[in-house]
Batch of 2 targets.
Target 1
Amino acid sequence: MDYSKPIDNALFPKGCERCSFTKFSLFMLIPAALLLWGVISAFVVLANGLGTTGLDDKFGFGLWITVDLAVIALGAGAFFTGLLRYILNIDELKNIVSFTAVVGFLCYTGAMFILVLDIGQPLRSWFGYWYPNVHSMLTEVIFCITCYCIVLIIEYIPLILEQRKFESNKFIQHLAHNFHVYMPLFAGIGAFLSTFHQGSLGGMYGVLFGRPYIFRDGFFIWPWTFFLYLLSAVSAGPMFSVLMVTLMEKITGKTLVSWKVKQLMGKIGGTMLIVYTIGKFLDSYAWVNSVLPRSGLTFDQMFTGFVYSSFWFYAEHIALVIGIACMALPALRKIPAFFYIGALVTCFSIVLNRFVMTVQALGIPVMPFENWQWYWANWAEWGAFALILGYSIVTLAVTYRYCPLFPQEAELNKK
Amino acid sequence: MAHFKDFTVRYGMVIDLDKCTGCGACMMSCQAENNVAPQEDASNKLRALNWLKVYRLSNGKEYPEHETVFLPRPCMQCGNPSCVTVCPVVATDKNEEGGIVSQVTPRCIGCRYCMASCPYHARYFNWFDPYWPGDLKEALSPDVSTRPRGVVEKCSFCHHRFMKAKDKAIANGEDPLMLPEEAYQTACTEACPNGAIVFGDLNNPEHRVYELKQSPYAFRLLERLGTDPQVYYLSKREWVRRLGDNYLEQEETGKPLQTLLNNSH
């Protein structure tokens, strides 16, 4: 027994070093505090009803739906990287694909947990499968998200099976191997499901013809927001994964993924961002010049004050242009500062988009004799957000400590 | 925008805003008739349950030109309801002769997507468990189910009265789809002291609403969005009619409606 090494040393991935168990435990106090706050607020909401939140009849959707949409977009790195790695066979991505799957798993399970809190009758949530309304975009979201969550669990399992503790178990070794053999199939299913639920999340808003701020025309049964949400997710998803890796590198003090792989992820995200940005600018132009005048409204009527100001509209668009400049231009992308700024502003733009489409859309007076309404999330709503944040930190930390999350780690940190 | 479904019988209202005094009798009768739970603190109007809500409209001018109008807003029972298609569990539907948008509260999961879709804010969520203080529970109507916490509810045009009227017609050997106007009336219509609310089958020439809805002073709320509401309003005052919809500066009141109608023909 080597007493100079952490007590749980035998469980670490091969060739990787970890901090002491005491240090790890102390670090875990941070997510534990978040989890405690989250559990209390979840109990209060489930026991006493949604009246304990800051939501009201004007703002049926608020922070939770914004967070749901944002994390599902940011978690898109999972399906998109999986698609590129397993279907298009971009081999380099094998060094980050497991991590993107874990990030996706956390984003999706977190979103599903928030949805359980968000619906007024959580015990009836199975009605979505039993009495589906095939015309509702939300039905498509319910089916695809839950199915895709199962795919993400399947993608997560091999990581656990490859834990050092199971090395001697032949059956588990074979099982893990077979998971890898069939992974392209699951990656394909995941890409199919994700395409539809990412799109349907945008479609959910685009079909609301009673809300001119978010209503959009479209192609066949799909409003343009269907395609924009998908494109924005595949742009921001890879970049968010890179940002998360970098954050983990800062926390652990180790290099986990090579700069080359990060650059590739940035290039992929940047390329998709060009397509999304073109679509987004065309969409905004059509909205201002067609949807609004048709509804008897003007661009200026859509904004007021600071929270609902047009500053955010312009910020969302300008951030995309900055993102393209930083990520799609090789000269800038190769400079770390520009690379990370590009990833950050892209994610910012997409989160901002989810906020304005959710909250601002409901705050705008549609009937001419109404007033603007304001919404502030209260402690219980932030608590649910803290809960999924805490849960994600715990899961990610434990997975990193004990599972071979980053195939390049041992080599990149060789002394 | 196309009709959601065509009906032989299509119930609707015509509300004369020039007759409405804003007394609130319609709201009160609706609360009592439909077992709408009172709120312990109803000061937050964004949390209070009001299937029918009376809005106060102003022409925005100073005295002596200042004018106020009261606008009762039930569910519009839209011909093309934005709420029905979005509900993931078919808890709300428009599928029965009469053209009333149903709300099946035992089916509702409380996702509030329908509320987000409705531009009239005609849908209300039960934020807390319903509570009837003192002996109020004894006054509950046996005709309408109470609703639990966590579901959406809305005006049903007193659908239970429609059911009773149809049952009575069938028992008398009459056609339940050709009810005389007085056979089925909503609680708010009966309670209005000025007769501002007229209710009936919009498709039946024998019902007053058939004629009233064709008045040059008739308008519907947010008509240009394509919801095709079954509630009409009347006012001889142009500024009131103009507040019924959003208009660009250069547009004349009522003109967008004409354009829409011309295009549909």
Target 2
Amino acid sequence: MNERIIGRVQRVNGPVIILKGVRDARMLELVHVGDNLLVGEVIKLEGEKALVQVYEDTTGLAPGEPAYGSGMPLSLELGPGLLGSIYDGIQRPLDELLKRTGTFIGRGVSANALDRSKRWRFVPTAAKECLLNAGAVLGTVQETSRIEHRICLPPDISGKLISVAPEGEYGVDDIVAVIDTGKERRELTMVQRWPIRVPRPARSRRPPSIPLVTGQRVIDTLFPLAKGGTVAIPGGFGTGKTMTQHAIAKWCDADLIVYIGCGERGNEMTDVLTEFPHLVDPRTGKSLMERTVLIANTSNMPVSAREASVYTGVTIAEYFRDQGYHVAVMADSTSRWAEALRELSGRMEEMPAEEGFPAYLPTRIAEFYERAGYMDTLSGAEGSMSIIGAVSPPGGDFSEPVTQHTKRFVRCFWGLDRNLANARHYPAISWLDSYSEYLEDVSPWWTDLVGEGWAQDRKEVVELLRRETRLLQVVKLVGPDALPDSQRFVIEVCSLFKNAFLQQNAFDDVDRFSSPLKQYRMLSLILAYWRRGAAAIKQGVSLGALRKIAVLQDIVKMKFTIKDDDEEAFAKLAAALDRAMDRLESAYA
Amino acid sequence: MPKLKLGPEAEHRLMAAREYRGLARIEGPLIFVRKTHPVGYRELVECVDSGGTLRLGMVMDSSDDLVVAQIFEGTQNLTLPDTRVRFTGKPLSLGVSTAMLGRVFDGLGRPIDGGPPPKAEREVDVNGRPINPIAREYPRDFIQTGISAIDGMNTLIRGQKLPIFSGNGLPHNELAAQIARQAKIRGGKTDFAVVFAAMGVKHDVATFFTRSFEETGSSDNVALFLSLADDPSIERIVTPRVALSLAEYLAYEKGMHVLVILTDMANYCESLREISTIRGEIPSRKGYPGYLYSDLAEIYERSGMIKGLPGSITQLPILTMPNDDISHPIPDLTGYITEGQIVFERDMAGRGIYPPVAGLPSLSRLMKDGIGKGMTREDHPHLASQLFAAYSYVKDVRNLASVIGEEELSPLDKKYIAFGEFFETRFINQSSSEERSMEQTLDLGWEALRRLPAEELHRVTDEELDTWYGAEVGE
């Protein structure tokens, strides 16, 4: 090992340890501690002492054992081989750990993040003698059948391309290009390293304008997220955070998914691992695993690696963004990350702020979400990273610090409601608490797709839901019979809207994903029933008669029976509804 | 100074023989020892008092000259000058073997049933190690418990961790014992074992379980670890870890299907808080340490199935919610780690319903992949969803009825009231010795739904209505 000894252990107390006799350690330097070479990071320097956060279990570590400095910050290996991988919080491949230490995770294992034995077909695209900017594309590797991995210059290197490898099979450590930076000659491989805590640079930020289509109706129609946007999903346990995250990871129209299981259940990661390879992306017909990178740091894995896992995830996402892809990051759950911060802060004996969380919690949350965005990348392409962060508020109480601070830095909020979840209304996204600031940004996109009516129709249905809430409060006091038919009809339509539109069955082959067009057709049908029904009631048609029209059953079941973009079926249903309403009205005329 | 060239392990063993006499400080269950050789974090400590009695402990904090250790048996009668301390150079371990089934142990794994210590087949570190997520097998096989509230609505899956959130005075022990008695896996005989860990529970509770196992003649397949209410509270920190170490051995090395009952997790968390406070750590909610979540996860995540291995660990932790408050940190953090929860409702218990399982907040997360065609019955997923939805509406109707009176309800709402009544008193309610087959449970569910008109049943398909809702449409 060519690392230098930077000090010796003085005190061990859980995952944070103190080194003594430290002279040349750097802040945030990657270190290996003790005879077992546990991975850690320097988080504080004071005189001849250094505080190190260790990413592995420190059982057995004793004072006096040496610590070795690596001379560089905790960094990731970025290059071909990332897709379809599953890593722990500090980018050690879990399949490699399995080979080395068996079923149970051992300690002190260092493993390459990228497979060294694999050969990739590199196709050069940059011409020799060209002047290349930082981030420029050198060549490509078809990593999976759907993702072309673009090999770019690292963001801190630019210059004249002296030579580039011809098309052929290369390992990730083979030199594929030589650059004259003006000061020196740099030999480049297909791998670059990047420190996890430093955002990767982009040329400029663009305002978000394209929705990230998730296929979930309550999201796309009521509270849309834009590509490059940020959203928080808070909810108590059992309200369906993970289910919602899984549904989005499966069906959203991002090019790539980075799924961070941060301090959550082991079996949930296993679920993703066993399910994703068998699921087929409706848009490309390819396995979903081909576009997915998993970071798994389950709740029983070391807490400091949990803290690092979210940065590992976003750094990988930024790397693909820089290649011109739209990447969606699922962070499940950011509360566990915040709690890891709290635990480490406690071990460092820092003065706590709210509920024991460190005072820098809001800063860290802001830094994390601000790494999202829709960018012009250094290579001149457009790419985006969206962050979808689950929040697990203690007791389901949204007033706690993590939810509150997260709300300050995200522009979209999908609040999960315990009562909806209890009634098994999934996704349990509350239409009262949730909001999206991207509504205005993505409206033009919808207008292009379905015409002028979208924003208006959406507004109308939201207004109906608000009216219903007020009416239900009255109903609670006096019963529904005390209301006039016109008001009871509002409740009736909203209940239809909830059943037929907002509820979505993640396990039904048709219902699990709705195209934007299908969503709009469904919305239009329900609103047509509302508009014609409200007019009919004015003419004296009874609520009972309106409830009984047979076509209503077809509307309730249209989410299961009508496939995406089956325009004909929707037109038929609309015509049937019109005929039924015509008959009713003529009977009362 | 020339230094002896020894490997770290050998050096450690050599040093481990060193014994220190005298303590620097004693505070609660913690002892502070001045020492001269390096002592590992979480190392096992042997501590001998002036009377010669041996106590065990664990290193909590190790620095150059001082070690803080917690003593599991408590520190009463220890003196500063006369106590002798040995550092063993290894973490607390348990000698495990299949011969431990049918035996009773204390909270640290030492036999207390009068028999000799079972011959250890292997020594394992009780702290365990995290299972690599890719080594896990996703659990899918349901366990039939014969209890409708569980089989029908919150199906238990082999390898799941499903806690019972109860309250003082509610029949959680009866339910846990009933599950342990009746749990069956369809088709196929398998090696089945129960590992029972009691943390701070009353003697009566321990006796209840022992007797319940004896009555069914299953006590040969049960290992009990008892850290009772009058045992030192610090011991409880280790008890679940000791029990799970045996469970892991039986499941992953001996291929058995192990059901682990941990009661009462609330007591475990209290002990954790006690120690945290003595150590002067910064508390988070309600004085519990900030690492309560991670600590609980270390326990609960020691369950599941491993790829390529036949055995499984199913966990059934019991916890009494302080003041019946589900948002209290203990049930709250538990719910975030476990795969669902069975929640008891005092009101239902008051009305004589057993098991008093609250319909709506109870949940089994792994149910979705373990039920339906080829597993339980094809109508099960939609039936359960429909029962939940209808029962949820019953709650609304009851609220309304309490305001305007039941007579004023619409005819449809009255049908919901009838459904709710049937659901609670016939479907949920059963005796603690009654064992229903899965078919009986599902048929009973349809019988409940027949109180409602078919148009109200949005969550079942037309075919299911034809087959199961049947000709006897509710009156």
